[in-house]
Amino acid sequence: MTDSNQDQDTRRDERHKRAMEKQKAAVDAAVAAASKERGVAVLMTGDGKGKTSSAFGMIIRALGYGQKVGVVQFIKGQQLSGEELYLRDQCPNVDFYQMGTGFTWDTQDRSSDIAAAKRTWQEACRMLADPEFDLVILDELTYMLAYDYLPEQEILSAIQSRPESQSVVVTGRGGGSAIREIMDTVSEVKEIKHAYREGIAARQGVDF
């Protein structure tokens, strides 16, 4: 290596060190400023794949700390999923409830879907009111708002009045602006490509 190249590498290393020092200072300041201790409300939305998967990743994280988790799945329930099989069989700290009707486009029965949604919502309310639950997952809840199956204000009030230490994760497309407004964290999953659109069948262990 020539002296010129060595000088360039030295300057590059110095610039990198200064940049990382600046970044660390900013991160440390942000961590120090985040001093509130309470549960958080998270919304995973968007048209991309991975919203439920992300929520279930948070379940694994919570279980790693010995926390108690409640899971309520709206819409889904006719086809068993890998996460359901695992949580029901291997995780006694997880209270798992499914609406069990499948997708609304399968049932094509609005009255029946609304009745099932109301029964399922009662299970969600039970968990949201119980301080023993550290984390509550309300999977596909946004569809209940989008289809007007459940009263919006009732849902918002239950989430906002939950125990202070309890965190809640809501998943699903749409749902309106009101639920976004009350959540602490909102993440949108965007679809870039999807294997299904190329005629590739849903894969066990990946898609369900």
* CATH topology name of the largest domain: Rossmann fold
Strand content: 5-15%
Q: How is the main sheet built?
A: 6 strands, parallel
Low-confidence stretches: none
Shape: globular
Write down the domain tally: 2
CATH architecture name of the largest domain: 3-Layer(aba) Sandwich
Overall pLDDT, averaged? 87
What is the secondary structure topology, with strand pairs?
Layout: H1 3-33, E1 41-45, H2 51-64, E2 69-73, H3 82-90, E3 94-98, H4 104-107, H5 110-128, E4 135-139, H6 141-146, H7 152-160, E5 167-171, H8 177-182, E6 185-188
Parallel strand pairs: 1-5, 1-6, 2-3, 2-4, 4-5
Describe the structure.
By secondary structure, the chain is α/β, with parallel strands linked by helices. The protein has eight helices and six strands; from the N terminus they run H-E-H-E-H-E-H-H-E-H-H-E-H-E. The protein has two domains: 35 residues; 160 residues, 3-Layer(aba) Sandwich (Rossmann fold), CATH 3.40.50. The chain has a six-stranded parallel β-sheet, sandwiched between helices. It starts with a helix and ends in a 20-residue tail after the last strand.
Keywords:
Rossmann fold, 6-stranded parallel sheet, 8 helices, alpha/beta
Put the structure in a nutshell.
With 208 residues, this protein is of the alpha/beta class.
